[in-house]
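Translate structure to sequence.
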């Protein structure tokens, strides 16, 4: 998604599709992320932050795609970050 599309999604409160490894995840724009996402990232609990952004069902679907590794989770979070127009996961 382009930055312009991400800005429109943010302004209208819609979700953003994120295509990752052939699966399309739907995430809220960063302004709609729960503040707990930031708390989890600040505390270094990356997987909890990812679960909060994806929601329990999408996170379970992500984990069900075997094999999954930390590098996959980081790549997914970076794809989400790019789709919603924010910086990288800070790897």
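Result:
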């Amino acid at each position: 998604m382009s930055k312009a599309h991400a800005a429109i999604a943010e302004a209208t409160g819609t979700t953003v599709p994120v295509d990752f490894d052939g699966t399309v995840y739907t995430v809220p724009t960063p302004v709609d992320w729960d503040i707990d996402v930031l708390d989890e990232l600040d505390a270094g609990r990356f997987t909890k932050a990812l679960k909060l952004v994806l929601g329990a069902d999408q996170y379970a679907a992500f984990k069900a795609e075997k094999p999954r590794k930390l590098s996959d989770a980081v790549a997914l979070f970076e794809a989400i970050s790019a789709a919603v127009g924010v910086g990288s996961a800070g790897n």
